[in-house]
Design goal:
By secondary structure, the chain is mainly alpha-helical. The protein is built from two helices and two strands. The mean pLDDT is about 90.
């Protein structure tokens, strides 16, 4: 099972109640954990901020796992 973070603009948002968006398919059909940070209408600068947030999430998870190992 993978943890996948989706960053992007309106093409990557998952406001699809039919569960047909690629990020929803990754969750439903393949069991991956998906965190969708995409927002409609955002610029490439905003997408860079999303990527920075995704990196922070990964680092926070690594710290959490390290603390639980002690």
């Amino acid at each position: 099972k993978m943890k996948i973070v989706v960053c992007g603009d309106s093409y990557c948002t998952s406001h699809n109640y039919e569960r047909e968006h690629f990020s929803q398919i990754l969750e439903d059909n393949y069991g991956h954990e998906v965190i969708n940070l995409a927002r409609g209408g955002c610029s490439t600068v905003n997408i860079c901020f999303q990527i920075q947030d995704a990196i922070k999430l990964k680092k926070a998870k690594e710290i959490e796992e390290h603390m639980s190992d002690e």
